Amino acid sequence: MKLKVRLLSLLLAICLSGCVAKSSISNDATQPPVTEAPATSLSATTSPTTQPEETRVKETEPPETAPPTRKPSPIEPANDDFVRVRDYIPNIFFELAYATEDNFTGQKIYEFTEPWLRYGTVKKLILVQEDLRGRELYLKIWDAFRPTAAQFKLWDVYPDSTYVANPVTGFSSHSRGNTIDVTLVDGDGQEITMPTGFDDFSHLADRDYSDCPKEAAENALLLEEAMKKHGFKPYSGEWWHFTDSDRYPVEKDFSPTMEAWYYADCKEYINLRTAPSSSSDAITQIPVNEEFQVLAWHGDFAYVDYQGLRGYVLRFYIKQS
Q1: CB-based contacts of 212: which residues, under 8 Å, 6+ apart?
Q2: Best exposed site among 44, 59, 87, 157 by fewest CB in 10 Å?
Q3: 98 within 8 A of 108, measured Cβ to Cβ
Q4: Domain shared by 240 and 269, yes or no
């Protein structure tokens, strides 16, 4: 009898425990059922992914299988790279005379309105500007990099080798990107007294300041000393003309342009590269239809600004917005 009672009690306990377990599961409505991920074979995870033909990049070299990581900040240029000056010296003044008709030729020589120079030259100008700020003075640029096409045009409208370099026999040092025509201004951008204005071809423009008013001579000497201190060589015939002591070759392909918006006209993306070459490193990739600003042209490439990153893209795969 006692054995029957024990067996009956045991069966009752098992039934009750099963009901509790079932009740606790059915009431947990916020928890989704757990499912196991399907097993993946080793060959599927280790074999290279082949990109379908229809998704290939519309470029001349095979595309990368994955975009490189985007840099958090622009990459510092090499010394011989061309850069827009105000990107590195925001408080510099400029008024490019040859971008207007207000110059000795009476004609516009080039279309762009921003000064460009080699990065190595710009780094020296930064030091000059810092020195001058202590006197509450600033640099103002009248001319900087001059494309070779602009030099030919300048010669065409004023073929006098006394004042203009004949590009047939040799280009101006401006076409090297390390030469600048510059003056001094106050904090409001007003030019201070100098021996002459820009492109004055009289004897007053040379560096013999004995025939100039004292104030003009002192200001010209101040500019000259600041430029020489940081590695610039003055030209004896023009008080405004200085050339970086670091020499660069004449640049025949690079040409700044008026900024304009373009977009990637491709199947998937185009590479933004560190140099105008399809073999140069990719900085990032610009997806199809994404917009960016074209700042200059360099042969088959465009120099662009894409979300703060500067680099080169093939110009065949971009269109103006």
Answers
A1: 195, 204, 220
A2: 44
A3: yes
A4: no
Does the reported pTM lie above 0.85?
no
Rounded to whole angstroms, how far apart are CA atoms 140 and 182? Answer: 6
User: In CATH, what number is assigned to the domain containing residue 263?
Assistant: 2.30.30.40
Same domain, 105 and 233: yes
The answer to whether 213 and 224 have CB atoms below 8 angstroms apart is: no
Same domain, 96 and 232: yes
| Number of structural domains in the chain | 2
In this prediction, residues 80-92 reach a mean pLDDT of 94
Task: Identify whether the C-beta of residue 176 lies closer than 8 Å to the C-beta of residue 248.
Answer: yes
Q: Is the dihedral of CA 112, 117, 118, 119 positive or negative?
A: negative
pLDDT tens digits, 177-187: 999 999 999 99
Measure Cα distances from 150 to 89, 121, 175, 255 in Å.
25, 21, 9, 10
Tokens of 159: 């073929």
pLDDT at 15 over 70: no
Residues 6+ positions from 108 with CB-CB distance below 8 Å: 98, 99, 100, 101
Confidence at residue 51, expressed as pLDDT on a 0 to 100 scale? 37
